[in-house]
Each structure stands twice: as structure tokens, then as C-alpha cells.
Write a structure and sequence with these properties.
The complex is a heterodimer of chains A (431) and B (146). By secondary structure, chain A is of the alpha/beta class. Chain A has 18 helices and 13 strands. Chain A folds into 3 domains: 183 residues, Aconitase, domain 3 (2-Layer Sandwich), CATH 3.30.499; 106 residues, no CATH class; 109 residues, Aconitase, domain 3. In chain A, 40% of the residues lie in helices and 13% in strands. Chain A has a 5-stranded parallel sheet with strand order 11-10-9-12-13. A 4-stranded parallel sheet of chain A has the order 7-6-5-8. In chain A, helix 8 packs parallel to helix 10 and helix 8 crosses helix 12. The radius of gyration of chain A is 22 Å and the shape is globular. With 146 residues, chain B is of the alpha/beta class. Chain B has one domain: Glucose Oxidase, domain 1, CATH 3.50.30. In chain B, 27% of the residues lie in helices and 27% in strands. In chain B, strands 1-10-9-3-5-7-8-2 form an 8-stranded mixed sheet. Chain B has a two-stranded parallel sheet with strand order 4-6. In chain B, strand 9 and strand 10 form a beta hairpin. The chains are: A alpha/beta (431), B alpha/beta (146). Chains A and B meet through helix 2 and helix 3 of A and helix 1, strand 6, helix 2 and helix 3 of B.
Chain lengths: 431, 146
């Protein structure tokens, strides 16, 4: 039996010793060993029982994952609450693929998708709509309260839950999210503690207009890495209330901080809950400073490598919605694309474009007249994970455009600002 | 010859070549391509990491500040360890991050991997060591640049 450095309760020690079976003991040992690496003094109870898992894809190389899931199913072990999980990797109906691409997706890369979804269902998946990276949106309903302790993974969801909702969750890895959901405990360290939530960086926004969320997040992520930034001067552009626009902005900003760096929590002065409550007291005395002006954002934007083989050619496919779009964003993009086409005297978009959103948000949107407006433009609406789509080596030949810094980072997609991408897909270029 | 002492997180002995990243290593972006293609060697595919891009890290000592990026990171490390194409050692100048820590624990507990991991080697360590250097790692957390 593992000799834990942290203090365990009698019940936890018994579980570690095998009182609930070998598999349960192994899951707890993983969490305890992990907590010991951070000198966590003890385990604390997960208070928001609905876990969010990062691994939604039955990718054939993840053999350790399938093996563990099989063992859990066989032992009839489930998570304490129902869980949501990242988006599915395939949607042939709305993201068209060639026959060869389908073959590679279904038989080679995601050959274990069906098997994995069956495993997820048996271990505690919430429902068939539970596949999204934005589980915290009201339509999906896996929304923790301020102060809740979570066992979540998915970097963009964790940073949102910590920063915008004021919940408490470390940047757990895949598997650790699941094990925390099963045993109901996580190590007490980092973002779980008050001290771990204090800022090591003061970021001062001095731009002349509202910064592009995805570039600002990228700049901050690359600068502060895993540290907590306290951002001042942004409320001037996005307001001091967490309304739909601010939430959408912070979702995209946070995803970029987490994927271009390793940010798990940020505070926005006069906006996010802890910043509103504690203000600049959240900033550590020895905090470093990072000033962001127009020139700095431009420097960061110009630093992104373009991985297309032929950089001068036009894009062939565009993904908007990584992380998945909110209901408000879906409406806004529909309006902007419709208006853009009108201005450019076009009926249909110039580049194949897929908007992505959570299945529950899609269901809501489909019931509104806006959905037909969107379809008229030629765009499609999917709940796919664009990142998982780009895992197919055959898609590497395709020139994919995106306004997501996360997708850019993990694929060969080319990043464009919102206005640029709107211009390209509505045919402004070459008009 | 220069010596550094860190905190042992997964003990073991190693003698061989170092590969150095001065920036945080994005685990998913770095390792997914080789893992997906079921390669026998782990060649880093992260376009944003000029220190590591296109470097083969299998069986070598990966020297880095921390890992960054997607929270699949731990599972990615577990997977490359299960495929036995992993770096032999992860040598961190800083405190280990949560994703790498998960990966090392998952690899040790669930895969019985003998991957070595030492952290807190200090900024000086990363400034002193270069890709291609021969190093020795001892069980007590000592790293010697030979």
C-alpha cells in the first residue's frame, strides 16, 4: 500500500488499503500520489458532484483509457454524480468528409468511439447531449456555484469555472477528473486554496479599443504561463457586469490563456466575482507587471506561424466556435454573416464554414427563425470538436481557417481575427 | 562537469542525452502526432516550440520548465509511456505542473512505467544544459552534466 505523505482520514486510508476493492484503491492512490507532489496537506470533498471529463474521443491510441474504463465497467464503479464530457470528434452530417477521410476517421483514428461512448454511459455520462466543452452554459446545466470544489478537466472549462463562476478546481488532467468524480475527493492545493488564487501578475490593458479576446488571452497565456493574472483596464471595454457578451468574451479569452499558456484562473478587475469582492488585494506584493498595448497585441498576432503548405492560397474550410459558441454568439454570427453577404452582394458564403456549439444550445437555436437564416447563408451548425476533426492527417492538406487560438495551437489551422474571417467567408476579399 | 540537485518524484538512474526546451512544453501539441501515427519514435510536432520541434525525444532526458496546454496532457504522457516511446526522464527546472504530475503518476501506477521525474532543479539548470549534452541522473535527484 502506498505510504501517503498527506494526512488521510480513516475511511480514506481504508479505501487505499483496499476496503472498496483494488480498482477503487488504485484510483485513490493516483489522486493521493498526485496531491503529494504538491504537498497537499489532505483531501477535500468534491462539492459539485457533476464532473466534466476532457476525453470524449475514442481515439484508438488511448489504450490505457479504454482498459481502465473496461475495468471500471466490470467492477460496476460509477462517478458520484452524472458527468458531461468534451465534444464528439465526428459529425459527418454537418462536417462533410470524403470517403477516404471517413474511412480514416471511423476505422482508424476514432475506431473505438462507439465502444468508448458505451463505456462513458455505464460509468455515469449525463445524457446524449452531454458532449461539449462549454458544459457550464445554462442550456447545458453543469454549472457550479461560487466556492464549489470540482473534479473537472478541459482547460477552457476549468479556467472559466474558476474565473467567471468562482468555483475551485485545479487544472486536472484527463483520468484524474474521472477518478476525483469516482472517489469524491481532490487534493487541497493550488486553486482550491485562497492563497493559490492570488495573482502573481498584474496585467494592464492600454489598448485604444476592445482587444480581440483570443489574441489578448494568447498574449497573457504566453507571458504568465501557469500563474494567475489580475487584469486591469479591461472592464472599460467589456463592462462590469457578467452579461451574455462579457461571458462569451471571457470564454474565448480564457481558452486562449489556457491553451497558449497554462492559465487555470484569472481575475478581471471590477468584473469577475473574486475581483469584485476583494479587488487588488488579490494581487501578491511581489507581482510582476505586463503592459499590453496595441503594438504588443500586434506583435503577438504576427508571431503566429502559418502552417499551410501554400500560405498565399485562400482557405478552404472555416471553423468558428472553439470553445463552442454561446447562444448569443450564434445569433451574433448569424447576423454578421447575413449582413456581410448583403454588403458583398452574395447569397452564399465564399468558403465552407462550420459553426460549432453545444448540442443543448443547438437544440434551442434550431427552434428559432435565426437557424433558417444561418442555413440560408450556406453555413452549417455542428457540435463537433474542430480540434478532434483536425487530428485526421488527411485534413492537414486542407487549408483550415479559424478564429480560435486554441485550434490554431493544436492543429495546422490558420488564425484570423473575427473581422478578417468574416470578410473572407462573406466574400469581401476579391469583391 | 556541473551538478544540480532536485526533488525526486519518480526515482531512477539514467545516463544519456539531454533535449532542452526553454519554454513550457505543450504536451498535446508536442506528442499527439507521433502517438496518433503509432510511431516507434517520439518526434516533437509542436510548431510553436522551436527548441523541440522535430526533435526525437524517445529515451532521452527532456529538460524543461513545466508542461502547458490541454488537460489531456497527463493522459498523453501515460499513453506515450504505455507505448514505450517516452523520454526516459522528465527534468523540470520549476515545480512540476498539474498535468505533468498526473501523467507521471498515471504512468507509474497504471502502466508500471519506469519513467524518471525530478523537479525543482532551478533556473540555473536550464541555463546550463544544452540539447545534445550527455548527462547522468542519480536516484537521489542529482543531475550531472558530463
Amino acid at each position: 500500500m502506498y505510504n501517503a505523505k498527506m494526512k488521510l482520514t480513516k475511511e480514506q486510508s481504508d479505501i487505499l488499503g483496499g476496503s472498496k476493492g483494488e480498482l477503487y484503491a488504485k484510483a485513490l492512490e493516483t489522486i493521493v500520489r498526485y496531491g503529494d507532489m504538491f504537498e497537499a496537506p489532505r483531501l477535500v470533498e468534491v462539492t459539485h458532484k457533476e464532473t466534466h471529463l476532457v476525453t470524449s474521443f475514442g481515439i484508438s491510441i488511448m489504450k490505457p483509457l479504454f482498459k481502465t474504463m473496461d475495468e471500471l465497467v466490470e467492477a460496476n464503479i460509477q462517478t458520484e454524480g452524472k458527468f458531461t464530457v468534451d465534444p464528439r470528434p465526428i459529425d459527418y452530417k454537418n462536417v462533410k468528409c470524403s470517403l477516404l477521410e471517413k474511412l480514416v476517421f471511423s476505422k482508424i483514428i476514432y475506431g473505438d468511439q462507439k465502444r468508448y461512448e458505451e463505456q462513458l454511459t455505464k460509468v455515469g455520462l449525463k445524457n446524449k447531449n452531454a458532449f461539449t466543452c462549454t458544459s457550464y452554459l445554462p442550456e447545458v446545466g453543469n454549472t457550479p456555484k461560487k466556492g464549489d470544489i470540482l473534479s473537472w478537466a478541459e482547460s477552457s472549462a476549468v479556467v472559466f469555472a474558476n474565473s467567471v463562476l468562482g468555483a475551485r478546481c485545479n487544472r486536472n488532467s484527463g483520468m484524474l477528473d474521472l477518478f476525483g468524480g469516482i472517489v469524491g475527493f481532490v487534493p487541497e492545493y493550488g486553486f482550491i486554496t485562497d492563497e493559490g488564487r492570488r495573482a502573481k501578475w498584474k496585467v494592464i490593458i492600454k489598448t485604444s479599443s476592445k482587444p480581440e479576446a483570443q489574441i489578448l488571452g494568447s498574449a497573457i497565456g504566453m507571458k504568465v504561463m501557469e500563474d494567475v493574472p489580475y487584469v486591469v483596464g479591461l472592464d472599460k471595454f467589456i463592462g462590469s457586469e457578467l452579461n451574455d457578451d462579457a461571458i462569451a468574451y471571457l470564454k474565448d479569452f480564457g481558452a486562449a490563456t489556457a491553451s497558449n499558456g497554462a492559465v487555470g484562473l484569472y481575475h478581471i478587475d471590477n468584473l469577475t466575482p473574486e475581483a469584485k469582492e476583494l479587488g487588488t488585494d488579490l494581487i501578491k506584493d511581489d507581482a510582476k507587471e505586463y503592459i499590453i498595448d496595441d503594438a504588443e497585441l500586434e506583435r503577438v498576432y504576427q508571431s503566429y506561424p502559418v502552417m499551410w503548405k501554400d500560405k498565399d492560397k485562400k482557405g478552404q474550410l472555416c471553423f468558428i466556435g472553439c470553445p463552442h459558441l454561446t447562444f448569443k454568439q450564434l445569433n451574433d454570427w448569424t447576423d454578421k454573416i447575413t449582413q456581410g453577404l448583403k454588403e458583398n452582394n452574395r447569397k452564399k458564403i465564399a468558403t465552407r464554414t462550420v459553426l460549432t456549439t453545444a448540442p443543448d444550445v443547438k437544440e434551442k437555436f434550431v427552434k428559432t427563425p435565426k437557424y433558417q437564416e444561418l442555413l440560408k447563408t450556406g453555413c452549417t451548425l455542428s457540435s463537433i470538436c474542430p480540434l478532434m476533426y483536425t487530428n485526421n492527417p488527411l485534413t492537414h492538406k486542407r487549408r483550415i481557417m479559424t478564429n480560435s487560438n486554441k485550434l490554431r495551437t493544436y492543429s495546422m489551422s490558420r488564425y484570423y481575427k473575427d473581422e478578417e474571417i468574416l470578410g473572407i467567408i462573406t466574400g469581401k476579399e476579391g469583391k | 562537469m556541473k551538478e544540480f540537485k532536485g526533488r525526486v518524484l519518480a526515482a531512477g538512474k539514467f545516463k544519456g542525452e539531454a533535449v532542452v526546451s526553454h519554454q513550457g512544453v505543450n504536451t498535446l501539441a508536442s506528442f499527439q502526432k507521433a502517438a496518433l501515427a503509432n510511431k516507434k519514435r517520439l518526434v516533437v510536432s509542436d510548431q510553436n516550440n522551436p527548441d523541440l520541434f522535430n526533435n526525437d525525444v524517445t529515451g532521452k532526458a527532456l529538460c524543461l520548465p513545466i508542461t502547458i496546454g490541454s488537460t489531456t496532457g497527463g493522459l498523453v504522457i501515460q499513453t506515450i509511456c504505455s507505448m514505450k516511446i517516452n523520454p526516459a526522464c522528465f527534468l523540470f527546472s520549476d515545480h512540476i505542473d498539474s498535468l505533468a504530475a498526473s501523467g507521471i503518476v498515471l504512468a507509474r501506477v497504471w502502466e508500471k512505467s519506469d519513467v524518471i521525474c525530478i523537479d525543482l532543479l532551478g533556473k540555473d539548470f536550464l541555463e546550463s544544459i544544452k540539447t545534445g549534452d550527455q548527462i547522468e541522473v542519480k536516484e537521489d535527484g542529482t543531475v550531472v552534466i558530463l
